[in-house]
Amino acid sequence: MSSNPSVSSDRYCIKLGTTFGVESPASRVHSGTHLMLNKGVDGAVNLIWNAYEGGIVDSYRVLRGTSADRLELLAEVSGAHTAYTDLNAGDGMYFYALEYDETYSDEWQPMTRTFKERLSGSGRSNVVCTDGAWTVVPAEQLNVLAIEKELVLTPSQPTLHLQAEILPAMADIRTVNWQILEGGELASLTQNGVLTARGKENGEIVVCATTVDGTGIEARVTVVKKDFGILPQSVTVTTVEGTTQLTPLTGRLHLQASVQPTNASQLVAWSVVQGAGLATLDEDGILTPTETGNGDIVVRATSLEDASVYGELTLHKEGFSGDGVEGVNAGQMSVHRVGDDLWIEGLPEDSECGLSIVDPSGRVLSTEYRLEGRSGRISLARLASGTYLLQVVTGEGKQAFRFFK
User: Fold this and answer.
1) Which CATH architecture has domain 234-317?
2) What CATH number has the domain spanning 11-129?
3) Cα separation, 176 vs 174, whole angstroms
4) Do domains 11-129 and 234-317 have the same CATH topology?
5) What is the spatial distance between Cα 305 and Cα 268, in angstroms, rounded to a whole number?
6) Alpha-helix residue ranges (DSSP H) falling in 46-160
7) Which end of the chain is more exposed for a tag (fewer CB within 10 A), N or C?
8) β-strand partners of 143
């Protein structure tokens, strides 16, 4: 594998070999700076580069010269910048490069004798030349838009995806440099325009987009960050349909949670705390009944901001076939539920029968015996809500029924 810094900036990490034949842990990923240029308005030269990755760069030094080996300092710009325009290039052929000093992360540092030397290093980009550089169609107008409907950061919308609209449509360079001018402690901003809230403080964030084609056009937007740091006090759970009855006629129910106070985060996690075998509940609060089984279902909405704050709602499922009993190997027998009892019909008259309740792990919870007659009964009163198996053992073999409590 090879890397050519004049073509692209490749990412890499470093491992050190030891005398024991074992490699050291890898360093943090690094990536050098790749410099490009084009010609802009009135002979200006636009320099564009990718930010150095793997260390902290306080500033970039822009070098210019009439040959690749005779470069002098032209300007020094902030380490947050990824573009520079030379307005005074004039006629002739010029060469450009970048220099920078970086501070290494704590995860990996060069092994040197002194602490001061160990903290920093220096780097240099590829060299580019104006000879043969193409001239761009410049931007004339810049607008900042967002995918989201509102330019606000809230607990329910902690991220904004900002976009730069560059006009005219035939402008060649359609990338911009993003930066936060005010409120940098309230949010972070990537060079893709993704603004993400951080911390619990509220306030205004001023974001600026700047064209990098040499025109230097700026567009600013103010984003309001609000409602962070407000703790939830309670959660109320209701259904959109306005009913707590789950029947074959109503079908699924749509649950909704209201967190108080209303300006606290409204994000919740849904769960079923009773009657898990009677219905399923997805992350959007949609409760879907299973095909069989009746009884009470208790659902819970837990605040994502504070797990100790939650609300519950009890729903009643009724009218479904089979009373929650499903034959796995039924034969001539039939099982139906009456209250907290399971009744088994069609037992053989001439043999002893054992009736056992088994949980999903295979553990036998209770066993009862029917000595005579063709009917048997076993109580479910002590069972928690869930799915179980009724095993009926006779002289003719073993049969099983799955049921829900």
Assistant:
1) Sandwich (2.60)
2) 2.60.40.10
3) 7
4) yes
5) 8
6) 115-118
7) N
8) 165
Q: What is the rounded CA–CA span in Å between residue 351 and residue 396?
A: 8
Enter the tokens of residue 366: 């209770």
Tens of pLDDT, residues 315-344: 998 877 555 455 444 456 777 776 777 777
Other Cβ atoms less than 10 A from the Cβ of 37: the count is 22
- The tokens for 1 are 């594998």
Rg (CA), the chain: 35
Sign of the CA dihedral running 219, 224, 228, 234: negative
376-400: pLDDT as tens digits: 778 888 888 888 888 888 777 777 7
Cα–Cα distance for residue pair 140/219, rounded to 1 Å: 12
The number of angstroms, rounded, from the C-alpha of 391 to the middle of its chain's C-alpha atoms is: 45
Which residues fall within 8 angstroms of residue 93, CB to CB, at 6 or more apart? 66, 129, 130, 131
Q: Domain 323-404 adopts which CATH fold?
A: Immunoglobulin-like (2.60.40)
Give 111's pLDDT tier (boundaries 50, 70, 90): very low
DSSP secondary structure, 304-324, as one string = SS-TT-EEEEEEEE---GGGG
Distance CA 64, CA 99 (A): 11
- Indicate the pTM of the whole model: 0.46
